[in-house]
Specification:
The protein is an alpha+beta fold. Helices cover about 25% and strands about 30% of the residues. A hairpin with a 2-residue loop joins strand 4 and strand 5. The structure holds zinc ion (ZN). Zinc ion (ZN) binds next to helix 2.
């Protein structure tokens, strides 16, 4: 299995709106291959999500998975799932701030306010429509990945640009404090 090369901040594809996927594409070998490679690439990069634009594809597809990683040691495992043509249909009234990174911005973290819960509609790999209510960190991942498919990246949502820090500083200042709790 090969790790797909990732697009990085500055590449116009990360600012483009993804194209709706025709459901018949889900029956192809090409889709099965793409799914496997996206999940593999996400895992190898210790990511919790990866949108197709991040591997230079303009399809409205993303993969998501919560696994314990060096910078997210206390995560509740979930997934992997693949979401096709997703959209958010309902938002909570409350927003919460949380740390985010992105596989297209290597070595950077920022504090991002997100809706605490969202209801998402998407097609799964079998072409079935799924309506899922997500809360907490899983809701954050949905918002981050669906943003990607609309050409938005997480730093667009950072309220205070002074919270944008390197991964090294994040580990020193934020993660070490979390571990002591
Ligand atoms: Zn991202």
């Amino acid at each position: 299995m090969k790790v797909l090369p990732r697009t990085e901040f500055g590449n116009p594809i990360l600012r483009a709106k993804a194209k709706k996927v025709p459901l018949k594409f889900l029956k192809t070998k090409k889709f099965q291959e793409l799914k496997k490679q996206m999940i593999y690439t996400m895992r190898r990069a210790h990511g919790v999500g990866l949108a197709a634009s991040q591997i230079n594809s303009s399809l409205a597809i993303a993969v998501m998975e919560m696994r314990r990683t060096p910078t997210r040691p206390d995560i509740e495992p979930k997934g992997p799932i693949i979401i096709i043509n997703p959209r958010i249909v309902k938002y909570s009234s409350k927003k919460v701030s949380g740390w985010e990174g992105c596989l297209s911005f290597r070595g950077v973290r920022g504090l991002v306010p997100r809706f605490e819960s969202v209801t998402v509609e998407y097609y799964n790999e079998d072409g079935k429509k799924v309506v899922e209510k997500a809360t907490g960190f899983w809701a954050r991942v949905f918002q981050h990945e669906i943003d990607h498919l609309n050409g938005t990246v997480y730093i667009d949502h950072v309220d205070d640009t002074k919270t944008i820090i390197t991964l090294g500083e994040f580990k020193k200042r934020i993660l070490s404090k979390k571990k002591k709790k």
